[in-house]
Amino acid sequence: MSFDSPWRWTDGQLEGFREGLGLPAAEIAIFQMDTKRHASEEAKAERGRLARAFVDGFRPDLLYASDDDAQQHVTRHYLGSRLPLVFSGVNRDPGAFGFDRASNVTGVLEREHVAETLRLLRELVPGWRRLVVLSDHGPYWDAVIRRVQEGVAAVGGVTLTQVVRTQQFEAYCQAVAAAQGQADALLHLGILALVDAAGRPVPYQAVQRWVVENSRLPDASFWMDRVHHGTLASVTVSEIEQGRAAGRLARAILVEGAAPASLPMQPTAKGQPAISLQRARALGITVRSTQLLQSQIVRHYDWEAHR
Which superfamily does 8-111+238-267 belong to? Predict the structure, then answer.
């Protein structure tokens, strides 16, 4: 796994994978690269080396790897080998890792519900037009930003006024503050690799709490965990569905004897509308009964719910 546990995105993918695999007696060994904390390229490379040593020592019948960092630093090193490879949560094009040229890999692409998320935000806040996108410099966000630009073009009346990218938490905060007078809404992408002035990783929960306490703009993202930490709205990419789809691919390989290359790499289609009710109230937004019924409602910020 690229990231650590406990975390909804990591844990949900693994839970879904076990379910989709449907082999309760399977022996599953787990290595967490924890690239939120080991965020530099040098640290990621070292975590990848350790992960590969772990895989080689375990000698699995199949390797399942989640998210882009694990593909870059682990999975691609086994392309062309006899080890079947299954991935999920991949933002970049499979060709970026050489997956399009290998016969022993398949998996599940992570594709954001951009237009649906922007439309949900418009239902909550009618009339907004100017959107600012904020992200760290993680390489996989390049592809996401391109898809956001395409999604914005598909939603009439929305203008993407600025894309701000930084690795510095202070600069991220400055961009949020500057947007208060220049934008009508924010879209948060990469916040996992921001660092403070001393170069230490800033937990994404702290980033989100700062935004909640200092921004009056409605905002959106694409993942359920963000809504739990104060982002107003999202049509989320389901981590459970990502894992289930990967588990079904693994089962087809291990149980049914399918060749990985015969199983198409494709995204999950199911998205779940989600709304932070506490954030809506803080922004003076009334959530209609139809939105309450159709969406997953998060009633409290995670840092308050766990007091």
Answer: Response regulator (3.40.50.2300)
pLDDT of residue 235: 97
Query: pLDDT tens-digit profile of 162-220?
Result: 999 999 999 999 999 999 999 999 999 999 999 999 999 999 999 999 999 999 999 99
- Domain locations in the chain? 8-111+238-267, 114-236+271-305
For residue 68, pLDDT beyond 60: yes
Residues 10, 4: Cα–Cα separation, whole Å: 7
Six-digit token string for 36: 């939120």
Sign of CA dihedral 117, 120, 124, 126: positive
- Lookup result for tokens 């104060």: 230
d(CA 307, CA 135): 29
Same topology for domains 8-111+238-267 and 114-236+271-305, yes or no?
yes
Alpha carbons within 13 angstroms on the beta-carbon side of residue 57 total 9
Instruction: Give the sign of the dihedral formed by CA 263, CA 267, CA 271, CA 274.
Output: positive
Query: What is this structure's pTM?
Result: 0.87
Q: Which CATH architecture has domain 114-236+271-305?
A: 3-Layer(aba) Sandwich (3.40)
Distance CA 62, CA 218 (A): 43
| Residues 202 and 195 sit within 8 Å (Cβ to Cβ) | yes
Instruction: Give the DSSP per-residue string, 40-100.
Output: SHHHHHHHHHHHHHHHHHH--S-EEEESHHHHHHTGGGGTTSSS-EEEEEE-S-GGGGTGG
- 98 vs 295: CA distance, rounded Å: 38
